[in-house]
């Protein structure tokens, strides 16, 4: 598309994705890159409204949940991600299409292929240059989240284990596009692994 670089962070709730996003932002900015940090759902005004509906509202039927996440992605990509990439920015997103495939496809049993196709249609086939999976067990994620739960976080451990297994399977199926890191490792150590991978890809300034 341009000089832009698109990196997604994925993983279970409480895995430490946001910390990694911030560490990478700082490292890339220190190297002179312009970085756009965003998240799904959210990231735009409409996305924030969808986020409130889907995470903090009343019960949402699973197919409606999938469509709301897809609507967030469609708007987010067109309004924010693509313009930032065209401007040559590095875009770091906290969650992207693989969250839909794992949470709605595997977690909600709506079908990974169907949700993958829906999400790809929503984002007009925009695939990250690298997706980092911060891997964590359901029990550890629950421990780290403490008492505060949104609609999806409050699901049982088997729901979160299905999601975890699906993230790992996606990564195993396409090792060039994914980096799996152990969410139990120290944040600085995980960050070094991410930098090493970007270095190996030849995209570090
Ligand atoms: P996140 O922003 O990581 O939550 P928090 O800010 O509370 O850490 O993600 C919100 C929740 O939405 C999370 O449980 C995963 C879920 N989700 C989906 O189910 N499908 C999706 O497509 C996305 C992007 C998120």
Compact overview of the structure:
The chain has 205 residues and is of the alpha/beta class.
Explain this structure:
This protein has 205 residues and is an alpha/beta fold. The protein has one domain (5-201): 3-Layer(aba) Sandwich (Rossmann fold). The chain has helices at residues 17-30, 45-56, 62-86, 97-107, 112-122, 138-145, 157-173, 187-200, and strands at residues 5-11, 35-39, 90-94, 130-135, 178-182. 40% of the residues are buried. Thymidine-5'-diphosphate is lined by residues 13, 39-41, 55, 69, 95, 99-100, 103-104, 150, 152-153.
Keywords:
single chain, 205 residues, alpha/beta, Rossmann fold, 5-stranded parallel sheet, 14% strand, binds thymidine-5'-diphosphate
Bound molecules: thymidine-5'-diphosphate
User: Count of DSSP E strands?
Assistant: 5
Mind telling me which CATH architecture this is?
3-Layer(aba) Sandwich
Taking strands numbered 1, 2, ... along the chain, how are they ordered across the largest sheet?
Answer: 2-3-1-4-5
**Whole-number tally of structural domains:** 1
- Which class in CATH terms? Alpha Beta
CATH level-3 fold name: Rossmann fold
Radius of gyration: 16 Å
């Amino acid at each position: 598309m341009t000089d832009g670089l698109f990196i997604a962070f994925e993983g279970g709730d409480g895995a430490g994705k946001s910390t990694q996003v911030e560490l990478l932002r700082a490292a890339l900015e220190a190297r002179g890159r312009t970085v756009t940090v965003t998240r799904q759902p959210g990231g735009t005004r409409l996305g924030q409204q969808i986020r409130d509906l889907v995470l903090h509202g009343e019960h949402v039927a699973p197919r409606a949940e999938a469509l709301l996440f897809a609507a967030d992605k469609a708007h987010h990509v067109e309004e924010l991600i693509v313009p930032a990439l065209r401007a040559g920015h590095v875009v770091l997103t906290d969650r992207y299409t693989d969250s839909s495939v794992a949470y709605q496809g595997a977690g909600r049993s709506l079908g990974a292929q169907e949700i993958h196709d829906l999400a790809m249609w929503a984002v007009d086939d925009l695939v990250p240059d690298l997706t980092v999976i911060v891997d964590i067990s359901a029990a550890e994620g629950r421990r780290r989240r403490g008492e505060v739960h949104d609609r999806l976080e409050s699901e049982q451990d088997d729901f979160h284990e299905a999601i975890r297994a699906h993230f790992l399977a996606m990564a195993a199926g396409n090792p060039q596009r994914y980096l799996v890191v152990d969410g139990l490792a120290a944040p600085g150590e995980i960050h070094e692994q991410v930098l090493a991978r970007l270095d190996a890809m030849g995209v570090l300034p």
